[in-house]
Amino acid sequence: DGYSQLSAYERKRLKNITENAKFFAALKLDKSAARLHQIATKSQSHATKRAKPKKAEDETVRRRSMRLQRVEPSGVPMPEMPAQPEAEEYPQVPAGPLPMIPEDQMENSKLTEELLTTWMRISEVLLVTITNVLTMLSRYQCSLNSMGLSEDNIKKVVKYRVCSMAIHPSESIIFVAAGDKSGQIGLWNVSCKSEEGACVFIPHSSSVTCMHFSPCSPAHLLSLSMESLRCGDVTKAVFDEVCRSEENLSSFDFLEENGSTAVVGYWDGGVAVVDRRTPGTSSELSADIGFKRTRTVHVHPVNKQYFIAAGSADVCIYDVRYLKSNGNKPVSSLKGHTKSVASAYFSPVTGNRVVTVCADDKLRHNCNTGRWLTRFRAIWDPKQEDCFVVGSMARPRQIQVFQDTGKLLHSFYNIDCLSSVCSINVVHPTKNILVGGNSSGRLHVF
């Protein structure tokens, strides 16, 4: 048949591309359909033979000690350990624009069309400016107490550990995006109560560590992995490539309200400025800020020339206007961290506060997640200037809300529905909605 030399994965991918060209043509996305046809016709010539994986049933059954089975000699099960991800090779995604085709759309083309149409519709309607409304602490606590979790609002959206999330600002529909460690991005219309309602795309080849809907056009979902920063544009049904680098990327944030420029962090400690309006996928400026590692970058909500970077044990604020290749000095340094810092974010209204998560447990808060869980990131509630949300290792499993004084205001938990650690969390900008993501790709919506 001309494709016998392809692996099972490549044959499945080629079949999906060919069949889905018809779907995009039906949506009158001529360029996407043409691109799909081009990929389909060229895939055969670039195919390489791969060794077939050994089937599990062909392997001999091995004896496992009681230690490996996590059972005490007395027969009592040992304490729960975080689930370890399967050893699997993730597909490598090519550079350049990618058609917005789900991983397995063969049986769900109608669902995909409905999901993307919903995303486009709620983005077109949302033209009002989102404002932060401060409420009294007592009223805020009442709103937290009114939020709950049910089985209907739990769904496995991506295959592997959740590394980032973004929530659409729509006030009519709960629409969430999640990125996992393999490069998958799952879109979930929580308001759709059917068994389905979610689609998975693979626009990246490694962990999707940061995602944001564009502040001025939520029809654009920007996602970052080690190799690239992409913009999922539902109006074009394409994941455009904004920036690609040979150095590993770690995080990004918008420098302007229109979302046209962004500051990007590198795992090796540097930062870069990216302009989405310029052609090509190179950054406008790369700067050494003296960090050994940069995990997160975040732009001040009012004075957008300032951004904060968090690294090994460093938390510093810089002025983007004075960045240069080398010799950059911070405007301010936040001292006191003695161990690795996972994140640092300005408070949402004034930016006068900064919340950080560090392995030194300064809130008497267990942040030691181990290697199989995504590191915690404390995020401010966009609706409350002095309150933030963070995951917890406490039992029963829960997501906690603290005041900036360190006072615990509320714990979100449900013994029947939540039995795992939610390392990554996101809060809706205007509604009382919290989403927590765990290490198996499940999202929990309170």
UniProtKB/TrEMBL annotation:
GO BP annotations listed: regulation of DNA damage checkpoint
Keyword annotations from UniProtKB, A to Z: Repeat, WD repeat
Organism superkingdom: Eukaryota
Region listing for Disordered, in residue ranges: 38-65
Database matches in Gene3D superfamilies: YVTN repeat-like/Quinoprotein amine dehydrogenase (2.130.10.10)
UniProt xrefs under SUPFAM superfamilies: WD40 repeat-like
Gene Ontology CC: one annotated term: nucleus
Family: Belongs to the WD repeat DDB2/WDR76 family.
PANTHER family referenced in this protein's UniProt entry, alphabetically: WD REPEAT-CONTAINING PROTEIN 76 (PTHR14773:SF0)
Subunit structure as annotated in this protein's UniProt entry: Interacts with CUL4A and/or CUL4B.
Functional summary from the UniProt entry: Specifically binds 5-hydroxymethylcytosine (5hmC), suggesting that it acts as a specific reader of 5hmC.
Stated name of the protein: WD repeat-containing protein 76
Species in which this protein is naturally found: Phaetusa simplex
